[in-house]
Specification:
Immunoglobulin-like, 6-stranded antiparallel β-barrel, Right handed beta helix region, mainly beta, PbH1, Coagulation Factor XIII, Chain A, domain 1, 41-stranded mixed β-sheet, Pectin_lyase_fold/virulence, signal, Pectin_lyas_fold
């Protein structure tokens, strides 16, 4: 029989599950509670999830809304009010932000018998700063500050404090809680500046230090322009490779400049090598076309440069090909060490499968491309610092783009068309703005792509993917956006802790033990300090130096996993249609999925598991997303999976928030840790979601500890909440 909820909907009462499964040691009750993380942004009337140490000893939570005045350090604050505590353990605490407060920045005080700890909610948590020149900015340019709670009102202000202590005040371009832009005055002096942010709410205590930025002199505007004309009449026998390369070489000898190609067709056979300081530019992309001759042995890249070059305003046509535009790689080491590479208003139409051919011919051409690059040839293969791709339309036979080690990259307003067995990739990033693009599968074997630590990178961090469209992805796993990076450096106990250094057991290194450890993430997954995360800055034998002092927080025998760090992904305001999962797969820290829509997709998810190493997810939030319709073969989900594995008893996922999402039809919220005896998931909040027209609203599997369900609304749902059925433990196979 189908169970039908009342037509006007049914609001579930608060349900809190505290299923103790892990024995945790911590500081004595007399010690002040220590905070590792608190969930925000958060509105009055919503639940706050806190992780840390000594939280079981908290007797009272007090909250006060701060006065909104950026410079006020003297005004008396309102009297704090007691907040309702829903649940607590030594490592986590949940309370309700009083409903009658106005939105803003809040001061929270946790009181135990003998000590107090305070922190703020909705104050800026700045992930990274990026300028109009990538890691730097210019007079008349802009700064982008990305993270949580960046500019909650149009009163937000950034201050640049120079080495001479002089200040430059920057007003925000407009409210933006995820990534706010601040224009820089034209007369801003070049130099190094400390950046501080006030997000438009709270008093002077709500300012946050955002790190440093260099303001560099603006680019030289008066540079030589050399003009080149196409051969008339056009002939397939023409070869313009040598004369274009010669012209660019001459410009380089003059200190750089622009080679302007006038209208027409330019025929080429080899690589166009763009020297430092040269712009290769057409009149416009509908007037200038570069056509490469079809050959069984195409050049490794059609256009290539190392640093300080750009390609603009042209169309590129190619038959059999390898990489199309390659930039930013050292010619000797191959490392992505270049800088200042730009591709603007370029159209690429490259297909190795043109013409009539047999299945064997197509397979041979695909194999030739994979022989050049195992993961597939690439339309744009770019690496290094300050990469800009704007208003392009890229179609290649396989992969549309691959970014390697991008620092301060910006890709906006592009269309990327993925070919056979193709997928996009952002590998080893540190600061990427990927906005207002469209990624389309143009082959039924085209997949999606994502952010990763492949290609040997030790970390991937600080990426904004916003206001993009991902469409028609049916190849491989169909992952529209995924993280990836198998393996790790160490899992096991700490043998000693002293200030910023820890010692590890020499018997515990993982499959990546012989690689560089600097920048790897250390996650405490069991014992004292559960939920703590730090970064490795140096390794000497069994001694690891960290980016922070964790003495007194972790201790001997705290169990840790050290692995390539993936942190600070903001997946915001995108539309996904006819795709698979939008997910975190493996390690993740402080990622946010917010304001996205998904139609005929597998939905959103975070999977922690043994992926050639213990790979945990800490502090992942799914906020205000919409899921409509089932996937290709089954219902869609917001899916939190902790794939507990044989002989493991640590946590895999900690501190997950699923709030204000809308699941419109044939979609479910699913949380499953797979083991009743060794729970993999802890501290989960599912709140104020709307779920309609589906079989199961919220599906809770085995191995989920400390789960809070609150104020979820359901209609036309047969089973609103399915809770765990305790069965004998069923482990996934041995890792």
């Amino acid at each position: 029989m189908r169970f039908r909820l009342p037509r006007l909907g049914r609001r579930l009462l608060p349900i809190v599950f505290m299923l103790s499964a892990l024995g945790l040691s911590g500081p004595a009750a007399a010690d002040a509670p220590h905070i590792f993380w608190a969930s925000d942004p958060v509105k009055p009337g919503q639940t706050v999830q806190v992780s840390g140490m000594g939280l079981a000893a908290v007797e009272k939570v007090e909250v006060a809304r701060l006065i909104d005045h950026a410079e006020d350090r003297t005004a008396s604050r309102p009297e704090p009010e007691k907040a309702e505590v829903l649940a607590k353990s030594d490592s986590s605490l949940s309370f309700i932000l009083p409903k009658h407060f106005a939105p803003g920045v809040f001061s929270v005080t946790l009181r135990s018998e003998d000590a107090t700890s305070s922190f703020q909610l909705n104050a800026p948590d700045i992930y990274w700063v990026q300028g109009d020149r990538g890691p730097a900015a210019t007079p008349g340019g802009w700064l982008r500050l990305s993270g949580r709670n960046m500019a909650v009102t149009d009163r937000a202000v950034a201050k640049l404090i120079g080495e001479d202590a002089k200040e430059i005040r920057l007003n925000v371009a407009g409210p933006d809680i995820w990534s706010a832009s601040f224009p820089i005055p034209d007369d801003a002096p070049a130099g190094s500046y400390r950046v501080h942010l006030w997000n438009g709410a709270g008093d002077a205590s709500a300012w946050r230090d955002a790190g440093t930025i260099e303001i560099e002199p603006g680019a030289q505007t008066e540079r030589p322009v050399m003009e080149l004309f196409s051969n008339q009449p056009d002939s397939a026998d023409h070869d313009d490779t040598a004369r274009i390369n010669a012209a660019m070489g001459a410009l380089h000898k003059r200190g750089g400049g622009t080679l302007l190609l006038h209208y027409g067709i330019y025929r080429l056979t080899g690589t166009l090598e763009i020297p430092e300081g040269v712009v290769l530019k057409g009149e416009s992309n509908d007037l200038v076309t570069l056509i490469w001759k079809d050959t069984e042995t195409p050049p490794g890249a059609l256009i290539e440069g190392v640093r300080d070059f750009s390609v603009e305003d042209m169309t590129i046509n190619a038959f059999r090909h390898f990489d199309i535009i390659k930039g930013g790689f050292d010619p000797l080491s191959g490392k992505a060490s270049g800088r200042n590479v730009a591709v603007r208003r370029v159209i690429v139409r490259a297909s190795s499968f043109l013409g009539r051919m047999t299945d064997e011919d197509a397979a041979q051409r695909l194999q030739a491309m994979r022989g050049h690059r195992q993961s597939g040839v690439v339309g744009l293969l770019l690496g290094g610092s300050n990469i800009v791709v704007e208003d392009c339309d890229i179609l290649s036979s396989m992969r549309p783009f691959l970014l390697m080690g991008p620092k301060g990259a910006r890709l906006t307003g592009n269309t990327f068309r993925t070919g056979r067995r193709g997928w996009y990739s952002i590998s080893g990033p540190d600061g990427v703005l990927f906005e207002n693009n469209r990624i389309i599968g143009t082959d039924l074997q085209a997949s999606g792509g994502g952010i990763n630590t492949l290609e040997g990178y030790v970390s991937a961090r600080n990426v904004l993917i916003r206001n993009n469209r991902f469409e028609t992805m049916y190849g491989n796993d169909r992952e529209a956006m995924t993280s990836d990076g198998p393996g790790g450096y160490y899992s096991g106990p700490l043998t000693a802790v002293l200030d910023r250094s820890v010692w590890i057991d020499p018997a515990g290194p993982g499959v990546l033990k012989d690689r560089n450890w600097e920048g790897a993430g250390l996650f405490v997954v069991k014992g004292q300090g559960l939920g703590l995360v730090a970064r490795i800055v140096k390794k000497a034998g069994e001694v690891l130096d960290l980016d922070r002092d964790i003495s007194g927080l972790a201790e001997n025998d705290s169990i840790v996993s050290i692995l390539p760090m993936q942190e600070n992904y903001l997946i915001v305001g995108n539309h996904f249609e006819d795709v698979g999962q939008i997910q975190i797969y493996g390690a993740g820290y402080r990622h946010v999925f917010a304001d996205n829509t998904a139609l005929r997709s597998t939905g959103f998810g975070a999977t922690s598991l043994y992926y050639k190493h213990l790979q945990p997810n800490f502090y992942i939030q799914f906020l205000n997303n919409e899921v409509t319709g089932p996937a290709f073969r089954h219902a869609a989900r917001i899916d939190i999976a902790g794939r507990q594995f044989k002989d493991n008893d640590t946590l895999l996922a900690f501190g997950t928030v699923i709030r204000e999402n809308r699941l419109r039809a044939a979609a479910t919220i699913r949380v499953d840790g797979r083991s009743a005896t060794a729970p993999a998931i802890r501290n989960v909040l599912i709140e104020q979601n709307e779920i309609t027209r589906t079989d199961i609203g919220i599906d809770i599997g085995q191995g989920v500890d400390e789960l809070t369900l609150r104020d979820n609304v359901m209609s036309d749902v047969r089973i609103p909440v399915r809770q765990p059925i305790r069965k004998p433990d069923q482990m996934v196979g041995a890792p």
